[in-house]
Amino acid sequence: KRVDLIVEAMKHVPEDIPLLIAGTGPDEARxxxxxxxxxxxxxxxxxxxxxxxxLYADALAxxxxxxxxxxxxxxxxxxxxxxxxxxxxxxxxxxxxxxDGETGLVxxxxxxxxxxGLSRLADDVAATEAMGRKALDSMAAxxxxxxxxxxxxxxxxxxxxxxxDRI
Length: 167
Hints:
Layout: H1 3-9, E1 19-22, H2 28-35, E2 41-45, H3 52-58, E3 62-63, H4 73-80, E4 85-87, H5 94-97, E5 104-106, H6 111-123, H7 125-138, H8 144-154
Parallel strand pairs: 1-2, 3-4, 4-5
Helix pairs in contact: 1-6
């Protein structure tokens, strides 16, 4: 998910804003070394699904810079939580949802460009919160009903989505 880009970007962010990194994996030690003891960067380790909504609720924005992500569930979760998403042009799915300057930011691929985007979000909290409200509004049509209906139709079922709970 190129978390290293975000960690590197923090070197270009003069503001005292936290970066919370949820999850574990084989790159954890390398990422911690890359963070170089920056007190703003916190590695949370494993975070249960039930705890994620509180993290989104407390966030100002959500940076998500994967390479060619199919869908970008993190993007949807963040935007449904009313948070703008900072992404990059080659992220794939996230770019289908993030409208630059409206529901988030699409920054250049360098750590300096990502850092500048993070600073922009931190420096104008009112504008960032407004982007978050637009992000939330843009997610109104994204629900499980159309997804379930599409899957059922592909499987040969001709049920209206309201009957999904009976299956």
